[in-house]
Amino acid sequence: MSPDLDVPSGLVSHRFRAMGSDIHVLVPERRAPERADAVEALFEEWEAALSRFRPESELSRLNDRAGAPVRVGPILLAAVEASLAAARATGGLFDPTLRHELVRIGYGRSFDELGAGAAEAVGGPRGGGGWRRVVVDRAGGTITLPAGTGFDLGGIAKGMAVDAALELLSALGADAALVSAGGDLAVHGLPPGRRAWPILVASGPDGPVVPLVRGALATSGKERRRWKQGRVERHHLVNPETGEPAAGGLRRVTAVGGSCRAAEVGATAAFVAGRRLGAMMLAHLGLAGMLVTETGREVRVGRWPGAGLERAA
Amino acid sequence: MESPDTRAHARRRKEQRLGILRRRAALASALGFAAFVGLAAQHAVGSAKHAATRVTLPSRVATPTRYFDEQQSGSAFSDPSAAPLPPVAQTHVS
In chain B, which residues have their Cβ closer than 8 Å to the Cβ of A284? Predict the structure, then answer.
């Protein structure tokens, strides 16, 4: 736990690990253990359904049976429908069907197990776009993946789990709560006696602290989930057109929106769009945010604090 | 010496040539802009010999989808110039 983080009076901090990330929850003191346990159980349920690294997960079962309709549960159905809507909204910059490309560039195991390096790539890049041919039968509760395609719902699954956890806490009567899962964070209500949740944004201890009143933040970047494949440096944000890690001149993008899933998708799409068009992408989607270029220049968009200013590192 | 008819004819020919040049200039300008937009979009998403799919930025004039928070009303910050408080949480890069 970072010693620099404050726990507002009246709230309790709870931490655990799930979905390949450190989960941090702030809940009111009253009934805190019950609420924290409920959030932990929710994350376990979502990971069990949506992890591509668990062979027994619903998602793995769907990926293994590409080409045929597969009956799925409500969590996977919701995540797939949301990911397809996100792909449509971003013109395919956010592509949930890049599993085979990620495996090809070495991200076939969870990042915790990946270690220092990955096996050499087999075959050339094919690119994405498989999401356009996914068939969802909501009434029948089935999904049909095109043969040769696989889902990776990592980022949006985590964002949706954060949103679902906040809804659960609200339903359990929490009038103020914060849920953070790695790069995804969302808040409900306000800490007792405060006007905002001060959030240190992903760039180390000297990063900006933004006073979030409502909504969600998500950061996508290439600084953490990266590895060596032979002599080649890889990261997990793949450009669906090339099938290779995006190389648009950005280090990371933080987006803020009404939900964590929207912020997560916006951050990823803007990162893939690159230095020149990423800011335009965020603005088009109606999201605020901050882009950090590889040279350290910060570009702020929309209602992000200090938007309109640019700061060179 | 040129007759009035010859001068009028020459003037009409000149106006016709100018009209053609103006239309060509307008067309070139439109094509140039379209090419610029196309190149910019292609540059942003990268290009590859073996690209399997074409990825495009959604049209800026298209009706925004309701998937996102188009009015930015779902999120808000308080006055960032107020006295800073110690952070209660930190986001990381995912």
Answer: 57-58, 60, 64
The average pLDDT across A13-18 equals: 97
With CB atoms and an 8 Å threshold, state whether B86 touches A259: no
How close A239 comes to chain B (CA, Å)? 7
Listed residue (A250, A292, A304) closest to A273, CA to CA: A250
**Whether B85 contacts chain A with CB within 8 A:** yes
B73 touches chain A (CB under 8 A): yes
Q: Rounded to whole angstroms, how far apart are CA atoms A8 and A14?
A: 13
Write out pLDDT tens, residues A86-102: 999 999 999 999 999 99
φ, ψ of residue A209 to 5 degrees: the values are: -105, 120
Furthest CA-CA distance within chain A: 58
Tens-place pLDDT, residues A96-119: 999 999 999 888 888 777 765 667
Burial pattern A197-223, b for ≥16 Cβ within 10 A else e, equals bbbbbbbeeebbbbbbbbbbbbbbbbe
Task: Tell if the CB–CB gap between A26 and B53 is shorter than 8 Å.
Answer: no
Residue-level pLDDT at A287: 93
Among candidates A22, A211, A257 on the partner chain, residue whose Cβ is nearest the Cβ of B68: A257
Joined tokens for residue A216:
């969600």
Lookup result for tokens 């996100």: A86
The answer for residues whose C-beta is within 8 angstroms of residue B26's C-beta and 6 or more apart is none
Region of residue A306 (phi > 0: left; psi between -120 and 50: alpha; otherwise: beta): left
